[in-house]
Write a structure and sequence with these properties.
The complex is a heterodimer. Chain A has five helices and no strands. By secondary structure, chain A is mostly helical. Chain A has one domain. In chain B, the strands form five sheets. Chain B has a three-stranded mixed β-sheet with strand order 10-3-11. Chain B is globular and about 45 Å long. Classes of the chains: A mainly alpha, B alpha+beta.
């Protein structure tokens, strides 16, 4: 009996509080613009492939103003608080990437704030 | 059939006419992508370029979000070079940037395919693919490329740049794709010197081709046979 109690205590101590309480869900701030180019479930799963496919076409073939565009993502999803998609942990891209544990490196080069529209 | 051919010929001729400086009648790349029917190039009239004037450099820095510093670690996409002949004392001042070679050595040496030439002749770096090895910097005879040594912040939305990649003059590809002229050309024109001309080298009636034909234009290090897209008058 004593052994069991000791084991139970050990297990409860070893588990971090976060796991018991559940991981915090990402903050999804509604976008500013109109409709997205695809439904949310498609965007969630496929946006990396879409962007990766498009970047080659844009850079090498000079196709701009395509349907898929990181600049347009940023234009709609930049938060009102920071004006960016990745400046604070609550911003659209950053919050989801932190939740999924995927490194977000687009904005090391690309602007995370919308520019003036041309 | 012959009517159609004649019409197409006229349409093609019309398509490339420069209406006014900075305004072109051909369709900018935008949705369809670039074609090899045009080759973008530039002519520098060194007789009009003045020592001490750096309007082109300042415009480039502003357009592309460069710091404007000129240390060994800083990016410089365009430099002003002043020359003086020891024999005759003749002085020359000219901007030097990526020469947008038809046979670019930077593309030859790139191990990943990051350094490439677009169909319209603009030589670029695909930063998604660049691993920062800097072979291209060594291969370039014009010292045109820079390496980004430190993290950058607040880049321009049109001009993504970042640490660990090589970069150079893009002929302001973002402006060219909108149908505009490179920032340096616009600034030079606004300064009143009008030493820089931009246009389609494949179109014999473009302002840049006409000037090259009439006034003559030389390549820097023509002996390397790189067929540069940037050419100089009066050197």
């Amino acid at each position: 009996m004593r052994l069991l109690a000791a084991l139970a205590l050990l297990v409860s101590l070893a588990l971090p509080a976060g796991v018991l309480a559940g991981v915090e869900k990402p903050v999804i701030v509604p976008a500013q613009g109109g409709k997205c180019i695809a439904p949310p479930e498609v965007m969630r799963r496929e946006h990396p492939d879409m962007l990766k496919h498009q970047r080659t076409i844009t850079v090498h073939e000079g196709v701009v103003n395509a349907k898929v565009s990181l600049e347009k993502c940023v234009a709609c999803h930049a938060s009102k608080a920071t004006g960016s998609v990745a400046a604070s942990p609550q911003d659209f891209c950053e919050s989801c990437h932190a939740y999924a544990g995927v490194k977000l490196d687009c904005f090391e080069c690309h602007a995370s704030r919308p520019g003036e529209t041309k | 059939m012959s009517d159609r051919r004649a019409f197409l010929g006229k349409a093609a001729a019309l398509g490339a006419v420069a209406v006014a400086p900075g305004l072109f009648l051909f369709e900018p790349a935008r949705a369809k992508g670039v074609t090899s029917k045009v080759r973008w190039g530039m002519l520098v009239d060194t007789t009009r370029c003045a020592e001490g004037c750096d309007a082109c450099v300042a415009a480039c820095d502003k357009e592309n979000g460069l710091s404007g510093r000129t240390g060994p670690d800083d990016s410089q996409w365009i430099r002003k070079v002043d020359l003086r002949s020891k024999a005759t004392g003749r002085t020359l001042s000219l901007p030097v940037m990526c020469q947008h070679c038809a046979e670019p050595p930077c593309v030859d040496v790139c191990p990943t395919g990051a350094s490439f030439k677009r169909a319209d002749g603009i030589v670029l770096v695909d930063r998604h693919v660049c691993i920062g090895c800097r072979y291209c910097m060594m291969a370039c005879p014009y010292k045109a490329r820079s390496f980004v040594h430190r993290p950058l912040h607040d880049q321009k939305p049109d001009v993504p740049r970042g640490q660990g990649c090589v970069e150079s003059c893009t002929l302001c590809v973002q402006r060219v794709d909108r149908g505009e002229q490179p920032a340096c050309v616009e600034a030079c024109s606004a300064s009143g010197r009008k030493a820089l001309f931009f246009g389609d080298l494949k179109d014999p009636s473009s302002a840049v081709s006409r000037r090259m034909r009439e006034a003559g234009a030389k390549q820097i290090r023509a002996d390397l046979q790189l067929d540069t897209g940037v050419r100089y008058q009066g050197i």
